[in-house]
Write a structure and sequence with these properties.
- By secondary structure, the chain is mainly beta.
- The chain contains two helices and 24 strands.
- The protein has helices at about 1-15, 110-115; strands at about 35, 45-50, 60, 65, 75-80, 85-90, 100-105, 115-120, 155-165, 165-170, 175-180, 195-200, 205-215, 220-225, 235, 240-245, 250-260, 265-275, 280-285, 295-300, 330-340, 340-345, 350-355, 365-385.
Amino acid sequence: MRKNMSRSVWWILFILAVPAWLLPPGAVSSEEEGFTPLFNGENLDGWVIEHGKPSTFQVAWGVIYCPGTTGYPAWLRSEKQYENFDLRFEFRMDGWCNSGVFFSAPLHGRNSLTGFEFQIDHKNKTDEPPSIKTCGAVFAAVAPASNPIGPDKSWNQGRILFDWPSLKFWINGVQVQDLDVEQNEELKYRLRHGYIGLQDMGYPVWFRNLRIKELPGKESWETLFNGKDLDGWYIEGKGATWEVKDGVIHAENNGSYLVTNGEYQDFELFCYLRTSPLANGGIFFRWKELKTGDRGNEIQIENTPDSDYPTGSLYNIVRSTQPDYRDGEWFPMQIRVQGSRVVVRVNGETTVNYDALTTIRPGHIALQMHMSGAWIDFKDIQIKRL
């Protein structure tokens, strides 16, 4: 009995003393209370492969393995979306490697720019200063303070603590990022909620022991489109047809607007768009009515390189550079309006940051279809009042 008791005491002390990543399955350290496994060690239940095949991500010996046979833009995403959280995981590289862990990732579009990416990279030369591509970087935006990854074929511990506006990364227990996102122009307008994802960039990479603790949310979004019908909207003008097909607002031809019943002055708007070649339309904000021409301001939709105002432009005021997306494919658009400022992001790229709006008052959101023989699709339209 004494021997059994001493073994029990030893086991308890062991659990309390060692890091969670060394514990056997089912054991939980005091630091891991409140965490939920994201990976069951047996299959990809709770995950979805995007832009890949069943072999793009595999499970063996309690590990998620990406052989790198598909490559960009393939990724493995969580079924659930998250806002604020503490995410812990392990990753392994066997040599030359490029991968990443996405968070706040959209369903469509550039995950690493619309949301965020914890960069995973093989380079660990101590004579090279960390860069925006070094392991532990906020990819393409902020270099890590150091690069404490282990040698090839070793397991590394990663941690992402995201509690807007605070963003922190650790690698192998060393803190490499400590950011106030709202103080960084490259990050402050990115999504604050979305999917967790693992990236396939064409190189072998392994993941295990993924677990998450959700933290209280701070955002409140309103759904403008229910995915079934046009309840909450009305049509102004004639010519274009507006209908709902398979959870999508589909607009064809020229001449009319779909307008929200509600009015908004300061807000963030998020939606996915899909266009046919030569489509022309827009998203108006602070709209009053068509009859008097009081249409507020327009964010243009027109994927034509030589357009006076291509997609993402503040029509008739600021011309955007041609954003990176393809006709026939979904891409995200974000519009933030507050006072005299409007910020527009298309597929993770800021196309407008303008602070001289003159129409500052509540108004409707209006979708425009403005080209015969073309179409535009809209879905997942959400708004957050500021």
